[in-house]
Design a protein that fits this description.
- With 252 residues, the chain is of the alpha+beta class.
- It has 2 domains: 7-103, no CATH class; 107-245, 3-Layer(aba) Sandwich (Aminopeptidase).
- The chain has helices spanning 7-20, 58-70, 87-93, 129-138, 146-154, 200-214, 229-237, and strands at residues 25-29, 32-36, 47-49, 76-79, 96-108, 121-124, 159-167, 170-180, 183-191, 219-225, 241-251.
- Strand 1 (25-29) and strand 2 (32-36) form a beta hairpin.
């Protein structure tokens, strides 16, 4: 369905993921989108190519650096297959280092239709305090980053599904599913520390993929840190396939 050899497939997932994770402030310039979100997450605080680009001149790099410093952020570029091939090397000369690396996965949902929804899964269309509190019990978010995170989550313009899996009267796993066109993207997948090893995130995501398929989605995608072995194993068990990698080049 998708292929690394088809750059338009990568551009599609880039487009979907940028829509699904919107920074509250942005600048669009010559095929680039500069995102600013007070430092919460790399994607929302980096310069991203929005179309396949062959080159970027030094003046444009300097302009972007100025804009990030003006926002109180370290300049950062997200290196994807859409960015100019020599950009990483050129940024290294300017003092940039690789801050982190991630992988993008996808899978077809053609086999996900017809299953009855899991009765232990609760799904809501909008973010509320209960979902946010449940997620923060699984993944602590520094209080200083909460305004930026809330602005991202409440700024998603396409369909959202905030889901939790309940066990013994408490939420034990959570995720955000974002539906756009024929795809569902998964973000903020989490599990309570004392309930790990029970397959709960897998159960939740399987249910959410089935629900997304029922709403017309034909494919699912997600991003995960390259060193996150448990998550990589989970997504492999769920049938996700690797499509491409990206890295953050950060100055300082």
């Amino acid at each position: 369905m998708l292929s690394y050899d088809r750059i338009q497939d990568i551009a599609l997932l880039e487009d979907l993921s940028m829509t699904a994770w919107p920074a509250p402030r942005r600048i669009i310039h010559g095929g680039w989108a500069l995102y600013f979100a007070a430092g919460h997450t790399g994607r929302a605080n980096s310069a991203n190519a929005v179309v396949p680009l062959a080159t970027i001149d030094d003046a444009t790099i300097t302009l972007f650096e100025t804009e990030y410093r003006r926002q109180g952020l370290a300049p950062m570029f997200r290196l994807t297959p859409l960015t100019p091939p020599d950009l990483g090397a050129r940024l290294a000369v300017r003092g940039y280092g690789i801050a982190s690396e991630s992988k993008v996965f996808w899978r077809s949902l053609k086999d996900m239709g017809g299953a009855a929804p899991d009765a232990a899964v609760r799904v809501q269309d909008r973010l509320d305090k209960a979902w946010m509190d449940a997620y923060r019990r699984m993944v602590p978010v520094p209080e200083v980053e909460m305004p930026a995170l809330m602005s991202i989550l409440t700024g998603i313009a396409v369909r959202t599904r905030f889901a939790t899996l309940w066990q013994d009267g408490e939420p034990v796993a959570a995720c955000l599913a974002v539906l756009d066109r024929d795809w569902v993207g998964f973000f903020k997948v989490a599990c309570r520390a004392d309930r790990r090893g029970q397959g709960l995130p897998r159960r939740l995501m399987q249910d959410m993929m089935g629900r997304a398929a029922a709403e017309g989605a034909v494919g699912a995608y997600l991003q995960v840190g390259a060193g996150n072995a448990p998550a990589l194993a989970l997504y492999a068990r769920l049938g996700f396939q690797h499509l491409y990698d990206y890295a953050y080049a950060k100055l300082g």
